[in-house]
């Protein structure tokens, strides 16, 4: 009997329990849950018979049984999300109800397919007829998979990352130390009721977070805990925001502090029926401060059934019940990991200098991160290059006794050998806060502006850094297998960020004013005191990155930045006074404002933006957009505007966009919840080439004059559920090549005259359930090469005889809602 047989039975039993709970609690999902119970109860005795038959299935048949486990596990995961969702989240619950309905149809198709489920029970016969039915089932299940994306570099790069991160027992990324650590920590959090707080302790880059994620993905752990919350704390955490996320993740309640008095658990349970009664696992990753840990542990301790897994490079003595010290890789494990990064295989290839490889691996001291980064940097390099790296690694031994400095010096060698612009782009990554996702568009914009690159070169550098394990490309889980630059972000290990900061300061320690990058490495209440000491002279910084809390006018110094081209303002505040020194940045080309507070910040001194004559890119996140009609002078060189999680109604009210932004070519608005309609003046911005409106749930209509945007090539209206129709003017966009209306769940139809878009190459329209027919003019879309849609309408597209080169791709369903925690 295979392990899958056992887990399939366990998952089916657990799924039935979850469905019973949903029937009692969720009116929206009750009908689908009842039907699903019927189907799963049909499958359960079949699985049990296989489980106890003692028959070992052939590999092909076992893989088909694995598919049953996958489907059941999908259902269990979806049910867990339904049960965890607060009843006050109406829109979220509607989305979950739709996903329950789709999942019910998937199971129904599986049960009623060519291979009836009872054939599995006849496994001890395994006759030829049964084999034929299995093969037919395999073809049916393969039909729900989607094809390979045409987004070449992006899709391939993300796919490589995902493949490299598939850590399983016996793989190069998961050695014996990891396997042993996983078993021991699992025993602590599952097998010991007396251990409520467990710590994984180890050096930076030793694989602590990898181990924690492996534990969270373990089937036994997932079945033991009803809920799992993974929070990254970091060096400069926003404690109140962490508390809110933690409380919301465990209880499903969205108001922390105001709705929950600081009273003992029995009283809280009596007054608030949303307290979770099951078991929860809370992972606190990258914890630095004992005070922060103490407060988070105190909060979780108020809730019964919760266990905490702390991940840190520091050994905490207070509040921890048991510590597991993560060991470094053994010699053979280190060699396998290094060879995989350097050669793409587990061992040393023939004709490679074996002794040289062994010497370099030895210098990495068993650190997984160092092995991966240095190994990737040596890939496809000549032997003389390898010898040079080996010599430099050996010399770095005596630089500093501290572990962190020795690690940084070793890894710095791989950075110094990068081409000049690639190295500079890597150093730019240190300008962003630790443990935060960097939107791909921000990074590309910065590189284009300050390194004189075009976008294709910037993407190529990004891919090279990813291939060398110096950053990680992360795909938005909502998009399934479909990726574009809008759904990709960048993350970086904190040790690599420290390396970027270390190298940025190296060589100019004697003069803060001469640094090319002036960076606040972590969040502080005010500007660093050392900056004040340099205000009597101009700062030569090309990039300035500031990370503070609320800033008022008097909190800023008088500073001159005659060469600054990029200003990044990271803050956490409800009000924020823009720095007066902005008007002394004559060369500023990219301005990024990101607020990490729980509410939108009100910006003061916004009129200073009028002084930025050379500004080309503006990114505003989680702020209330100031009134744009008060900008005294037009920003003639501004090409790109991105508004994310912003309140925009006040800022856009009555504004004449072409007067303020006469050369605007790209406008992005994401999660702007108060956006009901776009200003009509947008239709007169004739230079606009890309318009992206995503996740704006209140957007009800698009301007009737949208057809006036004759230069528009990209139109994304994604996840706007209140939008019910597209204006006929869209059919006048003669240069449009890409249209995305995915997840506009109430959109009733495509425009009748859509066939006039003769340059349209791609349409994304997945999860547009209301669109059940196609207009007759689609046969005139002679440039159309690709459509991504739901299975229900795919057959209509495939039946268009006048489009023989059209590729129709059925979108893969994605049940995960983990992105909501971000």
TrEMBL record:
<protein>
    <recommendedName>
        <fullName>RPW8 domain-containing protein</fullName>
    </recommendedName>
</protein>
<dbReference type="InterPro" id="IPR055414">
    <property type="entry name" value="LRR_R13L4/SHOC2-like"/>
</dbReference>
<dbReference type="Pfam" id="PF00931">
    <property type="entry name" value="NB-ARC"/>
</dbReference>
<dbReference type="InterPro" id="IPR036388">
    <property type="entry name" value="WH-like_DNA-bd_sf"/>
</dbReference>
<keyword id="KW-0611">Plant defense</keyword>
<dbReference type="InterPro" id="IPR002182">
    <property type="entry name" value="NB-ARC"/>
</dbReference>
<dbReference type="Pfam" id="PF05659">
    <property type="entry name" value="RPW8"/>
</dbReference>
<dbReference type="InterPro" id="IPR027417">
    <property type="entry name" value="P-loop_NTPase"/>
</dbReference>
<keyword id="KW-0677">Repeat</keyword>
<dbReference type="GO" id="GO:0043531">
    <property type="term" value="F:ADP binding"/>
</dbReference>
<comment type="similarity">
    <text>Belongs to the disease resistance NB-LRR family.</text>
</comment>
<dbReference type="InterPro" id="IPR042197">
    <property type="entry name" value="Apaf_helical"/>
</dbReference>
<dbReference type="InterPro" id="IPR032675">
    <property type="entry name" value="LRR_dom_sf"/>
</dbReference>
<feature type="domain" description="RPW8">
    <location>
        <begin position="1"/>
        <end position="149"/>
    </location>
</feature>
<dbReference type="InterPro" id="IPR008808">
    <property type="entry name" value="Powdery_mildew-R_dom"/>
</dbReference>
<dbReference type="Pfam" id="PF23598">
    <property type="entry name" value="LRR_14"/>
</dbReference>
<dbReference type="GO" id="GO:0006952">
    <property type="term" value="P:defense response"/>
</dbReference>
């Amino acid at each position: 009997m295979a392990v899958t047989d056992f887990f399939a039975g366990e998952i089916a039993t657990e799924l039935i329990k979850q469905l019973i709970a949903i029937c009692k609690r969720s009116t929206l999902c009750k009908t689908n849950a009842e039907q699903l119970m019927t189907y799963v109860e049909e499958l359960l005795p079949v699985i049990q018979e296989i489980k106890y038959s003692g028959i070992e299935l052939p590999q092909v048949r076992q893989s088909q049984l694995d598919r049953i486990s996958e489907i059941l596990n999908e259902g269990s995961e979806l049910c867990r999300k339904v049960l965890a969702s607060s009843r006050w989240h109406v829109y979220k619950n509607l989305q979950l109800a739709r996903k329950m309905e789709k999942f019910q149809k998937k199971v129904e198709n599986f049960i009623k397919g060519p291979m009836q489920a009872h054939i599995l029970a006849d496994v001890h016969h395994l006759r030829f007829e049964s084999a034929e039915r299995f093969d037919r089932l395999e073809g049916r299940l393969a039909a729900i998979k989607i094809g390979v994306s045409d987004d070449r570099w992006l899709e391939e790069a993300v796919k490589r990352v995902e493949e490299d991160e598939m850590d399983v027992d016996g793989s190069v990324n998961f050695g014996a130390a990891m396997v042993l650590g996983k078993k021991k920590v699992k025993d602590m959090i599952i097998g010991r009721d007396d251990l409520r707080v467990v710590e994984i302790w180890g050096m930076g880059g030793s694989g602590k977070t990898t181990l924690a994620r492996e534990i969270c993905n373990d089937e036994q752990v997932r079945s033991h805990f009803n809920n799992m919350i993974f929070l990254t704390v970091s060096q400069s955490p926003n404690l109140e925001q962490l508390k809110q996320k933690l409380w919301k993740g465990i209880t499903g309640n969205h108001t922390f502090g105001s709705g929950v008095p600081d009273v003992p658990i029995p009283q809280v349970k009596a007054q608030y029926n949303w307290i979770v009664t099951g078991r929860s696992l809370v992972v606190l990753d990258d914890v630095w401060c004992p005070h922060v840990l103490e407060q988070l542990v105190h909060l979780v301790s108020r809730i019964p059934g919760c266990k905490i897994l702390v991940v840190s490079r520091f050994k905490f003595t207070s509040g921890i019940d048991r510590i597991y010290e993560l060991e470094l890789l053994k010699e053979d494990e280190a060699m396998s990991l290094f060879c995989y990064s350097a050669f793409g295989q587990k061992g040393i290839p023939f004709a490679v200098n074996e002794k040289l490889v062994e010497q370099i691996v030895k210098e990495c001291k068993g650190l997984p991160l160092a092995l991966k980064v240095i190994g990737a940097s040596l890939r496809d390099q000549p032997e003389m290059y390898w010898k040079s790296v080996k010599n430099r690694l050996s010399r770095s031994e005596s630089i500093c006794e501290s572990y962190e400095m020795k690690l940084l010096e070793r890894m710095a060698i791989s950075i110094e050998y990068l081409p000049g612009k690639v190295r500079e782009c890597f150093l730019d990554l240190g300008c962003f806060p630790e443990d935060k996702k960097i939107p791909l568009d921000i990074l590309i914009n910065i590189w284009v502006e300050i390194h004189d690159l075009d976008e294709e070169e910037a993407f190529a550098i990004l891919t090279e850094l990813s291939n060398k394990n110096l950053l990680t490309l992360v795909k938005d889980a909502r998009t399934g297998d479909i990726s574009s630059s809008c759904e990709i972000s960048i993350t970086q290990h904190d040790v690599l960020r420290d390396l970027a900061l270390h190298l940025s300061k190296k060589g100019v320690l004697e003069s803060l004013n001469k640094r090319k990058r002036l960076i606040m490495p972590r969040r502080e209440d005010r500007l660093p005191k050392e900056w004040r000491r340099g205000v009597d002279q101009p700062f030569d910084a090309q990039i300035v990155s500031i990370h503070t809390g609320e800033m008022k006018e008097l909190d800023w110094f008088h500073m001159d930045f005659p060469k600054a081209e990029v200003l990044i303002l990271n803050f956490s505040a409800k009000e924020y006074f823009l720095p007066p020194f902005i008007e002394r940045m004559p060369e500023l080309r990219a301005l990024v404002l990101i607020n990490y507070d729980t509410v939108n910040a009100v910006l003061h001194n916004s009129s200073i933006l009028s002084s930025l004559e050379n500004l080309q890119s503006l990114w505003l996140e989680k702020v209330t957009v100031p009134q744009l009609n008060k900008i005294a002078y037009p920003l003639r060189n501004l090409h790109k505007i991105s508004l994310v999680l912003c309140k925009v109604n006040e800022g856009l009210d009555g504004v004449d966009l072409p007067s303020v932004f006469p050369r605007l070519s790209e406008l992005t608005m994401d999660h702007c919840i108060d956006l009901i309609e776009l200003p009509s003046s947008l239709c007169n911005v004739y230079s606009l080439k890309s318009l992206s409106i995503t996740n704006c749930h209140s957007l009800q209509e698009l301007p009737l004059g949208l057809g006036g945007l004759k230069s528009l090539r990209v139109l994304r209206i994604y996840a706007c559920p209140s939008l019910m129709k597209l204006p006929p003017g869209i059919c006048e966009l003669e240069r449009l090549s890409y249209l995305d209306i995915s997840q506009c769940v109430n959109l009733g139809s495509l425009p009748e005259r859509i066939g006039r878009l003769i340059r349209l190459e791609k349409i994304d329209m997945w999860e547009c359930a209301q669109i059940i027919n196609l207009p007759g003019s689609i046969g005139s879309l002679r440039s159309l090469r690709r459509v991504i849609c739901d299975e229900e309408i795919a057959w209509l597209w495939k039946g268009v005889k006048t489009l023989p080169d059209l590729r129709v791709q059925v979108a893969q369903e994605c049940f995960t809602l983990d992105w909501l925690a971000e």
